[in-house]
Amino acid sequence: MRIAVVRERAAHERRVALSPEATANLVADGHEVVVESGAGDSANMPDTAYADAGATVVADRAAAIGEGGVFACVNGPDTPELLAGLGPGHIVVGVFDPLWRPAPVADLAATGAKVLSLDLVPRSTRAQAVDVLSSMATVVGFQAVLVAGARMPRLMPLLITAAGTVPPARVVVLGAGVAGLQAVATAKRLGAVVEGFDIREEALEQIRSLGANSIDLPEADADDAEDPAARTQRLLTPHLAEADVVITAAQVVGRRSPTLVTDAMVEAMRPGSLLLDLAAERGGNCALSRADEEVLHNGVTILAPTDLASGSPLSASRMFANNVVNLVRMLCTDGDIHLDLEDDIVAAMLVATGGAVVHPGVSEALDAAEGGSDS
Amino acid sequence: MRIAVVRERAAHERRVALSPEATANLVADGHEVVVESGAGDSANMPDTAYADAGATVVADRAAAIGEGGVFACVNGPDTPELLAGLGPGHIVVGVFDPLWRPAPVADLAATGAKVLSLDLVPRSTRAQAVDVLSSMATVVGFQAVLVAGARMPRLMPLLITAAGTVPPARVVVLGAGVAGLQAVATAKRLGAVVEGFDIREEALEQIRSLGANSIDLPEADADDAEDPAARTQRLLTPHLAEADVVITAAQVVGRRSPTLVTDAMVEAMRPGSLLLDLAAERGGNCALSRADEEVLHNGVTILAPTDLASGSPLSASRMFANNVVNLVRMLCTDGDIHLDLEDDIVAAMLVATGGAVVHPGVSEALDAAEGGSDS
Amino acid sequence: MTLLVALTLFALAVFLGLELITKVPATLHTPLMSGSNAISGITLIGALVSAGSDHSTLTTVLATVAVALATINVVGGFLVTNRMLAMFQTRRKRDQ
Amino acid sequence: MTLLVALTLFALAVFLGLELITKVPATLHTPLMSGSNAISGITLIGALVSAGSDHSTLTTVLATVAVALATINVVGGFLVTNRMLAMFQTRRKRDQ
Amino acid sequence: MTVPDLIALGYLAAAVLFILGLKSLGRPRTAARGNLLGATGMFVAVVVTLLDRAIVDFRFLAAGVAVGALVGALLAMKVQMTGMPELVALFNGFGGAASVLVAGATFLEVVDLGNVDDQLAVAAALTALIGAVTFTGSLVAFGKLRESLRWSSFAGLHVVRAAAFVASLVLATVVVVQPASTGWFWALVAVGLLLGVLATIAIGGADMPVVIALLNAFSGVAASTTGFVLDNSLLIIAGSLVGASGLILTQIMCNAMNRSILDVVFSKAAVVQSGSHDDAYADGVTSTSAEEVAMLLEVASRVVVVPGYGMAVAQAQHAVRELMTTLEGMGTEVVFGIHPVAGRMPGHMNVLLAEAEVDYEHLLEMDRVNPTFAQTDVTIVIGANDVVNPSARDESDSPIAGMPILDVDESGTVVVIKRSLSPGFAGIPNPLFVADNTLLLFADGKQAVLDIVGALLEG
Amino acid sequence: MTVPDLIALGYLAAAVLFILGLKSLGRPRTAARGNLLGATGMFVAVVVTLLDRAIVDFRFLAAGVAVGALVGALLAMKVQMTGMPELVALFNGFGGAASVLVAGATFLEVVDLGNVDDQLAVAAALTALIGAVTFTGSLVAFGKLRESLRWSSFAGLHVVRAAAFVASLVLATVVVVQPASTGWFWALVAVGLLLGVLATIAIGGADMPVVIALLNAFSGVAASTTGFVLDNSLLIIAGSLVGASGLILTQIMCNAMNRSILDVVFSKAAVVQSGSHDDAYADGVTSTSAEEVAMLLEVASRVVVVPGYGMAVAQAQHAVRELMTTLEGMGTEVVFGIHPVAGRMPGHMNVLLAEAEVDYEHLLEMDRVNPTFAQTDVTIVIGANDVVNPSARDESDSPIAGMPILDVDESGTVVVIKRSLSPGFAGIPNPLFVADNTLLLFADGKQAVLDIVGALLEG
Ligand SMILES: NC(=O)c1ccc[n+]([C@@H]2O[C@H](COP(=O)([O-])OP(=O)(O)OC[C@H]3O[C@@H](n4cnc5c(N)ncnc54)[C@H](OP(=O)(O)O)[C@@H]3O)[C@@H](O)[C@H]2O)c1
Ligand SMILES: NC(=O)c1ccc[n+]([C@@H]2O[C@H](COP(=O)([O-])OP(=O)(O)OC[C@H]3O[C@@H](n4cnc5c(N)ncnc54)[C@H](OP(=O)(O)O)[C@@H]3O)[C@@H](O)[C@H]2O)c1
Ligand SMILES: NC(=O)c1ccc[n+]([C@@H]2O[C@H](COP(=O)([O-])OP(=O)(O)OC[C@H]3O[C@@H](n4cnc5c(N)ncnc54)[C@H](O)[C@@H]3O)[C@@H](O)[C@H]2O)c1
Ligand SMILES: NC(=O)c1ccc[n+]([C@@H]2O[C@H](COP(=O)([O-])OP(=O)(O)OC[C@H]3O[C@@H](n4cnc5c(N)ncnc54)[C@H](O)[C@@H]3O)[C@@H](O)[C@H]2O)c1
Fold this sequence. Notes:
The complex is a heterohexamer, with two copies of chain A, two copies of chain C and two copies of chain E. By secondary structure, chain A is of the alpha/beta class. Helix content of chain A is 36%, strand content 19%. Chain A is built from 13 helices and 19 strands. An eight-stranded mixed beta sheet of chain A has the order 3-2-1-4-5-6-18-19, sandwiched between helices. Chain A has a seven-stranded mixed beta sheet with strand order 11-10-9-12-13-15-14, with helices on both faces. In chain A, a hairpin with a 2-residue loop joins β16 and β17. In chain A, α1 packs parallel to α11 (313-331), α6 (132-151) packs parallel to α7 (178-189) and α6 (132-151) packs antiparallel against α11 (313-331). The mean pLDDT of chain A is 93. Chain C is mainly alpha-helical. Chain C has one domain (27-95). Chain C has helices at residues 3-20, 29-40, 43-52, 57-94. Chain E has three domains: 1-78; 92-265, no CATH class; 277-458, TPP-binding domain (Rossmann fold, 3-Layer(aba) Sandwich). Chain E has helices at 3-25, 31-49, 59-78, 84-113, 118-146, 157-177, 182-200, 208-230, 233-256, 261-265, 273-276, 290-298, 309-314, 317-329, 348-355, 366-369, 391-394, 445-458, and strands at 302-307, 333-338, 363-365, 378-382, 413-418, 438-442. A six-stranded parallel beta sheet of chain E has the order 3-2-1-4-5-6. In chain E, α5 runs parallel beside α7 (182-200). Chain E is elongated, with a radius of gyration of 27 Å. Chains in contact: A-B, A-E, A-F, B-E, B-F, C-D, C-E, C-F, D-E, D-F, E-F. The interface between C and E is large, with 85 and 116 residues. Bound molecules: NADP nicotinamide-adenine-dinucleotide phosphate (NAP) (2 copies) and nicotinamide-adenine-dinucleotide (2 copies). One NADP nicotinamide-adenine-dinucleotide phosphate sits between chains F (308-310, 313-314, 341-346, 348, 383-387, 417-420, 422, 424-426, 444-445) and B (125, 128, 134).
């Protein structure tokens, strides 16, 4: 099988979909790997490393994409130029977020290529080997804390020194998915006092399993008329008011991220504290956050970086690449790729084939979007 | 006693010499504290906090400095404008680095003020309460690792995941003074594999006392003709070649920082790795580092920030302020300040009084500088 | 041997028996039971004397049956204990 | 009592003695030593018989001295042990 | 030395050998030697007994020994491993029967001679009763374990049993008061036999090991009382040693099952933990205790620890590190096997173990640890489930089929520490739990590991 | 029941009471009861003995008992707490002497009657030797502990001792071979007395508790051999119980001191660590053992741990946390007192204790912990020195004068764990080490804490 990888074109993107190590694995499996020159530069993976691993390094994108085979990318091609060259012979593998942004995938589907979106992988035990959301969220959670630590005006750990006692920073993490949990763990490592919150009961246990405190909201009375979301916000406010850093990482698959932190909640926070919104790609968890911008509200700094995974491009790319290799291995029988729709993982991630979008969720999203644009 | 504090004028400086908490302590001791408006803004300490603590907030610098009393600053005043208003009635307390940069202190001395340089405090047990080098180095060491973590292309800790195993980053710390040790500790916390080196035997033990590995160079043969510095460099090279991050923090009091990392050593490092030189203020430990600039050499990024303490301005300012309070308490008898030259701490830090530089070391440095400019 | 000496021996042996066994891993419960059961076949020596003495036929018959039963208990008991422990031993040998 | 019965008693008692004491916290080392020392004053009962029997003057004198010494051992031993343990007890009471 | 002296000396030696043997049998390292010591003691005892002047005719005696030895050896050598406990029960019954017969024979003889004293009568009555109960009780236990006996409780059992018990006491008194009428003696034996059946009939198969242990103590007591009948010091000593140590063993076994002796004897149903959870495992789960795990670890030379989400929930990482240092202090090799998806976030185990200062060198990834399980004596799975589920490897229709797992089942013994039989994240049953070489330690992960460390330090 | 039967029954009861007493004495909870059981046993034994028909004259006997009881009671009630061990030694010596005298008296009597047999002669000779050694050995121990005896080793001691030993063996043989010449018996006693002195003379005061334990076992053996002389089962049983359990206790005490019995007996000098270091402290330092510290902690209700650079060097943070959890498990309050300059970098202790997962709530800064020392039972200073140096507070000319320190010396007892008497960073002596309420535990910080935890878990 021919497997192609190119330099990512998105702004701020420093990752690449295949690493030299992954290339070596694929080559050992009998595949042919073609790499666009410079594809790994921003992730500190030089062309020579790919070549050493057995890849063919070609000068331009078109040559890399070739006539068919697997085309692995981090961000889906979303402009006509980037779509050029793709056709029915291709299997395009990448993170397309098609439930949230269905339009680009529709364009891609139109080329006739088979489209597998890695972010649609089910969150099952068996699928974890190909789950890029998990691996990328790991990087994001870690980087988030480093960024917060570097940006906030205080130190993280408790230090009892001759120049006085530096109290530990208080870090609150809202949304304890993979990224949130990793943020909890990293902040704990740095000595912060960490509290975490999630709507899922298990996630609260998972927060505690990292030695951090979970914010356990009291049961609502049955006859409580308060809106659950408003109630949660009310109950979280005192925790935020105490915090030096708030990291939000709550997401809902394919939907706008829930708003957990309202303007009023930000205003309840201490001047000088920091809010890091990791859900900015789908609207953010904080009403005030602007993707990739820095907002200062009432003395509170609000960051909403969407490129944190690119903060550790080498590790992130390697993990991404391993997910891709695991996927190729999962799909391959006898050196060739077969899309076995009986397999729940394949079925879940196949977005388009034969020029049409076949994924029911994505189709719905497309319809909704068209409906939306109609009105 | 009147104690004045102003907004720092140095570029990138975000610290301030007194915190509201320290102000409250001084006021409780019976002192009068005068604060220039906005002095603490960059450190997230608003004027209101000072006022609440009992300080008089005044509109401009001149009003703050007043006619006499203690004038506490982080960086010494080094321009004619900044020197204006100071006179024999003043005791100026700050970090002047007079052994390395004697000229500004000479100008300050000329105003007739008494000058106490906090960086000349002896490194004795009793003096630690007023030792700003220690407290600031603590912040620097911590920040250095956060910056390194955010800047390097890899993650720090070992993570065994479904997307492959992320090996731990290797961090080498050269020079295990306060900053170096804090860097060792912080990198260990983040899960890196840490090695540390110092020329002092005790420092090697201190590195191990943090659970990190010390780089123990083999004893040199008696008949070894190799220059000791060159030998050390040769023996350190393989460690650097393995490293993802190198943090250098070797200093010698009042002298140019020793060059520990040569061009060749940088070239032996892996592309994509990072070198952080914390000794840049006095020339740096790496031949290639440029203060506050980013150098890319052979794929190795070399950073030499001099403002890392300003990275946590709040904590750094509080610690600095506590040192100042401790000093004031040490000097005060019956509410007034007496410079008891019998006290080794006072003797060591008194740079100038009565319009003349009285510190022998500083005088020497001045002579040498003049001699230097003569030749 | 007077009754009181016999009782003294009994008392000492009971205390000793109570002290001998303190913590026994579950793996050894059955072997220990089996081994001590074989020891309780000590009644064999009483049976031997009875069976070998010049007594009435009835007692000789009874005693001979007792010898047979007690011997089964003793011989079988030690052998089966041995087999159990051998299993245990091989498991441990293998790892050395 | 035959010698062999005596030896049997001896053997059983030795084994029992070896088993009785296993782990003793350091606090109890001295009390245990003292208490068992008092028990070893059991030689007193031998001395009593000797001293009370109708023997030669020499043996009576020896035995009477033995009675006195053994009694010191027994009475003093139990009493001093008791005092030690009482200290221990109060200390433990205090924190409860 | 006179012959009686020689015999007495031999008996003393035998007694010492029995003591040493029993003590050694309680420790893994010395158990085999203990059995040998016991057998040697028995051999010495038999040999010196043959010197007894009272023995004038060796024919019956030889015949009895020959038959007994043959039968005993055959049974012992041919039994299947799984059949051993019931064989022990059978042997035990024979021992009890032998005591009854010896005591009976002597009693008859002495009555004949007309010089019965109280001591003898009391001892004989006790032997008859205890020996008879031991005999039939053991036979019932044997039958129940072989599952060839399907009797169980019946209405009124309590009443009948109590009646038989009272009858036995009355008869025993009569025997003592009227020793000359030997018929009472045999009547007592008969009631004893009945009582043995009644006492055991209602007890369930799971409790049988405890019953056998108790009956074993009984047979010791019977031997001891026989010693009083025969005025034989060795019988007294050996019998009471077995009686007392058997009682302790019974107690230990009850504790391990979390039951009291009385519960067992009066057949109060046990609260079966497994029952309440998953029927997927039926009876197949073998549970264990911290002490037992410590014993296993003591003789292990290589141990792999496989942590999972449960270690995190229990926050057991520090305890686990303590276990590691303790074992390493004993010269045992310890490594951690880290599955890529163990825990609930990538690197979950790494974060915790790093916090507990477990060196990176101790952490082996799946690919590196898997080939080593075959050389591993004990694998301790603490709070892991899905990542050690062999169905991923062995069953193609499992929801996690094809996921690489840690092949812990290849190691000598697998100890799984978890609180219950509830499943892991994937929600599927785990065949590992019923594997032959798996022991389950039901407890909170942290407490369990601390208990194991405690037991190791004590042991 | 006949009188001999009654006596025998009484002896049996006494034996059982002794067994129960000894067993109970080994456990903190039951120790007091154990002592009572032992005393009751003794009372029973004495009372039934008085029934003995051989006793025809109660005068001397009563006199002896009266004198003995009076002296014993007076000594026991008036002794200071600190004088108890030496009193035990003294009592023990008396017991040994009594055995010698009883055996001697009986031996003389029987020789007079002309019916000495081998058993008696052997037993008498053994009693003479062992009892005599016990007597003088105990007296020497008593003297050494009172510090009234300043004898010590002399050149040639080994030779003289060996000679005395050989002589004693020869004499013992002669006594057995020629029992009729009673002079040999007394000669044997004389050599035994000498041997007792020679055997103990060279042993240092620190080892004396072990020696007393050993001599206690000896006096048990002497009682037992006296039992063989008198053909008295109770003496045999009680004596050998004490002999055997005394041996075990000796072994336990040796283990606790990390020495072997042979080292002690042949007075191999213990490696006294403190001597080699600083003369600044002269003899004023009281050193301690992990067991003793554990004992102190067992009864403490509040404990403060003060870590310093030494904890970091020893990487003892995990062990210290274990100590914390163990103590908290016992209901003891534990906090850490963190001095601002402890360690070698700001926050050094914080980094390490955070790694070991000691909650921030457990860490008290200087200002918060200092007022609490007066309510603290035990403060454990692990590898800290300058930060707990009271000269900073009390001596105005100290190089660290005026530096605020942790006032650990205000707590009930201070245990300082360090490897030697060497100074800390500031290089100055620390008067804390010679304070009355300070105990020094010389060891590597990690090992010391682990040992303390071990002792706590065992206790
Ligand atoms: N690593 C990741 O990134 C990630 C993310 C999400 C999901 N997952 C999934 O999580 C699973 C991880 O496998 P795993 O083996 O680590 O865990 P698991 O299969 O979820 O099993 C955890 C086991 O721990 C036991 N447990 C819970 N609390 C305990 C306590 N306090 N003490 C002792 N035992 C306790 C539970 O049994 P009891 O209740 O009986 O005690 C449970 O069976 C995989 O299915 C994986 O796909 C992984
Ligand atoms: N905190 C800071 O920022 C900083 C920086 C530089 C200097 N200092 C200075 O360092 C000192 C700190 O005081 P401190 O009380 O923490 O330490 P310290 O006064 O230096 O004393 C440390 C003690 O630890 C013992 N020790 C060393 N290794 C040990 C081991 N493995 N096990 C057990 N004990 C061990 C040493 O005694 P043995 O050798 O007998 O075992 C030593 O007496 C102050 O004088 C302070 O001014 C502090
Ligand atoms: N089977 C596997 O091996 C595997 C792998 C990865 C993830 N997972 C599971 O999937 C879950 C989701 O992971 P993810 O990181 O992709 O999640 P995500 O990024 O989709 O969501 C992050 C978190 O936000 C939470 N959230 C949503 N709405 C919220 C609200 N209103 N308030 C508070 N929190 C809210 C969610 O509960 C979730 O925990 C994980 O927690 C994990 O259990 C399983
Ligand atoms: N008494 C106190 O309480 C106290 C307080 C602070 C510091 N100190 C001591 O003072 C020392 C210096 O502290 P600092 O942080 O100000 O030091 P620094 O910043 O002056 O120097 C940093 C380190 O660089 C090392 N160094 C110098 N030349 C080197 C070379 N060629 N190669 C390698 N390493 C080299 C030094 O040994 C020192 O450890 C500390 O280590 C500490 O022991 C004591």
